Amino acid sequence: xxxxxxxxxxxxxxxxxxxxxxxxxxxxxxxxxxxxxxxxxxxxxxxxxxxxxxxxxxxxxxxxxxxxxxxxxxxxxxxxxxxxxxxxxxxxxxxxxxxxxxxxxxxxxxxxxxxxxxxxxxxxxxxxxxxxxxxxxxxxxxxxxxxxxxxxxxxxxxxxxxxxxxxxxxxxxx
Amino acid sequence: xxxxxxxxxxxxxxxxxxxxxxxxxxxxxxxxxxxxxxxxxxxxxxxxxxxxxxxxxxxxxxxxxxxxxxxxxxxxxxxxxxxxxxxxxxxxxxxxxxxxxxxxxxxxxxxxxxxxxxxxxxxxxxxxxxxxxxxxxxxxxxxxxxxxxxxxxxxxxxxxxxxxxxxxxxxxxxxxxx
Lengths: 174, 178
What we know:
The structure holds 2 protein chains of 2 kinds.
Chain A: H1 3-14, H2 20-31, H3 43-53, H4 61-71, H5 85-88, H6 90-115, E1 122-123, H7 135-173
Helix pairs in contact in A: 1-2, 2-3
Chain B: H1 2-15, E1 22-23, H2 26-36, E2 46-51, H3 53-66, H4 72-85, E3 88-96, H5 100-113, E4 118-121, H6 123-126, E5 130-137, E6 140-149, E7 157-166, H7 168-176
Antiparallel strand pairs in B: 2-3, 3-7, 4-5, 5-6, 6-7
């Protein structure tokens, strides 16, 4: 086996055009100790291929695998379940209940806050523009208003008094 | 659970917002509406008078300085007026001289809109042409609105709006006023 032949075979090997016999020749060559110096880099390749070819499963592999399979629990048989209408609508019922709870709490809290004494009302007096610049005229206006209000309220008070008197007279007659 | 608690918090936040801030009295609310529809509510149809808290204070000052110059009877009246005015903060009067029905409709609409705020007072005894509405804050009345329609045949309306603090003492003094 001369150097030139090995080189040719290597070239054919890397081009994937080498036959099985030629590959075997290459492996046999690289397993010898008389490998040319410039072909030494390829020695590890052909030796690794050769060592990998020697890997095989242990003798008891099949027995161990079968034992592992047999030790697993049998799968429960799948049974189709019938879902009732109520069960399928359950998420909807939960959503409705949540919304109802939120609304109820909201209404109750709203009623609670509105029933409490409100915060003091602050009128926007800064936006009030006086019609009169003379306090005397303003005083007259205010006095007239208060007098009218007093008359109106006394009118209702007088009506109350009259009703009480009428009831009293009716009671005496009876 | 987190989503539910978050929803509750978002829902409760608006109800916890404090009341107060700038508030309009009844005539202020009416005028806002009237001014926004200037082509419907003409300036020539009504007169709007305002006496602000500043002017009320000026009036009280004037009464205080004049009381020394008055006779006993007049001094009593001035004292009564002073006692009443000390509770009054502002006065507004809206006098409608034309198309009173239009303004009365607006008044009723606003009273209905703010029915939780304004309560009617002494309905039957006042008569058909007068209405008194009050606004309360706590135990005190803070606003009195008196609505007076003109007798049949006249197309006028007057609304008087007093703000202040009107307790039992004020009403007692008012009833004694002549």
